[in-house]
Amino acid sequence: MAGFVSNSTIDKLILLYVLDKMEMALTENSILEICSSQNNWLNWMDCKELLAQLLASKLVYKPDSDSAETRYTITPSGRGCISDFYTRIPKSIRDNIDVYTSSNKMYYKRNQEYVSKSYKNDDGSYTIELKILEPETANANFLIRIKIDSRDTAMNACKKWTELAPQIFEQIYTKIIE
Q: What CATH number should be reported for the domain holding residue 133?
């Protein structure tokens, strides 16, 4: 069977193409959501296995991270592989990936880099941690910590943080620097 390309090879190329088009390190959960849950480009179990194979072959790597969730990104070798073989991915899938990644980059950036959590203190108040994580390393240091007396207010602040983090941080930074 001359010219036969296994589905596994095409699936690896699809995964590399997604990582290339997203232009950021992604958590495993984000990769699975993008490739399996949201788009059905890859089977969930296959996607996990393909990610491990691409990592072992050094086409994908895990940047050092203090974060609880490991992130994956494409290597220069992976980009070279996509550059050489992207035409083996069916054009309809490439087009679909292009549209999806273009439309959803900011959603994944916000969900991975602008993190919030709240917890109840012994005195009954709530502390919320609002974090902006470093994009490539996912450094877990938080930038802002606020203590709030109301659970509802704390929960509302956490919900808004993902959307408003860049503007809030910019305003705080500008006010402190000026």
A: 3.30.160
Q: Is residue 25 part of a domain?
A: yes
pTM: 0.72
Q: Consecutive sets of 10 residues in the chain, 178 residues long: mean pLDDT of each?
A: 59 96 91 93 93 95 70 94 94 96 89 79 82 59 66 84 82 78
Task: Judge contact between 11 and 50, C-beta under 8 A.
Answer: yes
State the SS3 of 10-67.
HHHHHHHHHHHHHCCCEEHHHHHHHHHHCCCCCCHHHHHHHHHHHHHCCCEECCCCCC
Domain count, the chain: 2
Please give the residue range of the domain that contains residue 28. Answer: 7-106
Q: Does 1 fall in a domain?
A: no
